[in-house]
Amino acid sequence: MKKSTSFGFKYWFVPIFALIVINTIAYTGTKLLTDSGNHFDIALPIDAAIPFIPAFIVIYILSYAQWVIGYGLIAAESKEVCYRVISSEIIAKLICMVIFLVFPTIMTRPAITGNGIFEWATNFIYSLDTPTTLFPSVHCLESWILFRTAHKTRHKKWLVPLWFVFALLVFASVVFVKQHLILDIPAAILVGEIGLFLGKKLRTERVFEKINQKLLKGE
Q: How far apart are CA 17 and CA 23, in angstroms?
């Protein structure tokens, strides 16, 4: 398979498009099917003891930028890296989708009384998202996979430690802004690791190889 490091080449389009579609179905689509039904509350005593720290909403929001940058770097690296990482990520999202459908979870959010910028931002995030489809945390899953695959890029010397520290901050942010429960974090790591393992074991990158060979005539 021909290797390319040029982002101008369209080998990355199909994987990125597929990832966006699967992510939308796995998260938003399952909400439409489960939000009106029964949910499980898996809160532990430690969840009640964790304080609400609205300033962490900055990390929570910045994680969206991390995903764009991180997957952009993955896509730009090469066909091999793009196909392998994105296909593994899709496997993880499909696992999430099954869990969201068969084991929908819910949590109780705190009432936000402050009127500062952090409280306003947290309220805004709350208004966009219901406190469901929590287990595993998609926020934590995305940041974890980016950390675990950063070594595949030419920027690994600085990207691996950066993404590791940022993943830890994301883990903290999801519980400090009360968007997730503590068990959602290890579940995200586990699902991410399963996705990476199956991607490597099954060589799922071959799916995108075959698709692009037909669409782009193997360029």
A: 10
Go through 8-26 and write b for each residue having 16 or more CB atoms within 10 A of its CB, e for each that does not. Answer: eeebbebbeebbeebbeeb
What residue ranges do the domains of the chain occupy? 10-215
* Closest by Cα among 173, 152, 145 to 50: 173
The H-assigned helical ranges of the chain are 13-24, 30-34, 45-49, 57-77, 79-102, 117-128, 138-149, 156-176, 184-202, 205-215
The predicted-structure confidence for 196-208, as pLDDT tens digits, reads as follows: 999 999 999 999 9
Where on the phi/psi map is residue 180: left (φ > 0), alpha (ψ -120 to 50), or beta?
Answer: beta
Please report which confidence band the pLDDT of residue 217 belongs to, taking 50, 70 and 90 as the band edges: low
The burial class, CB within 10 Å (0-12 / 13-18 / 19+), for 55 is middle
Beta bridge partners of 132: 106
**Which burial class, exposed, middle or buried, applies to 65 when counting CB atoms under 10 A from its CB (0-12, 13-18, 19+)?**
exposed
The answer, yes or no, to whether residue 5 has pLDDT greater than 70, is no
pLDDT of 91 higher than 60: yes
Rounded CA gap, 58 and 177, in Å?
10
Q: What are phi and psi of 40, to 5 degrees?
A: -100, 135
Rounded CA separation 100/34 (Å): 8
